[in-house]
Design a protein that fits this description.
Blueprint: H1 7-17, E1 25-29, E2 32-36, E3 42-49, E4 57-65, H2 71-76, E5 80-81, E6 91-95, H3 103-117, H4 120-123
Antiparallel strand pairs: 1-2, 2-3, 3-4, 4-6, 5-6
GO molecular function, one term: DNA binding
Organism: Amnibacterium soli
Pfam families: YjbR
Length: 124
Amino acid sequence: MFDADDPLLERVRGLALALPEAEAEERISHGRPWFSIPGRTAFAVYGSGTRGPDKVMHPHAVVVHVDDDERPARLQDPRFFVPAYLGPRGWLGLDVDGPDTDWAEIAELLDASWRRSAPARLLR
């Protein structure tokens, strides 16, 4: 479901695996790269799709767990989508294959999602 040599995946991978103390790992699950803190839940996924009659695949997207207070504002932004399966748990996706992709924003989203999963010792 993804190309291991995808340059966009390489860029997301570089941002995700560079988080503090190198406390991130990549694994393949459900046919997609998932990024997590060892022994904890995932904080990002590369690629997704939406559910329902208007199902849309987003092969070049980063899916992150956003803070509950940020979710309504993010959903007002047409760049964001609710991913299948993870969406009901507070996750949102953002395509990274456009010419106007803001990689600083992607890095911030990954960092915020990482912080939701990180243990207190890493957050200090």
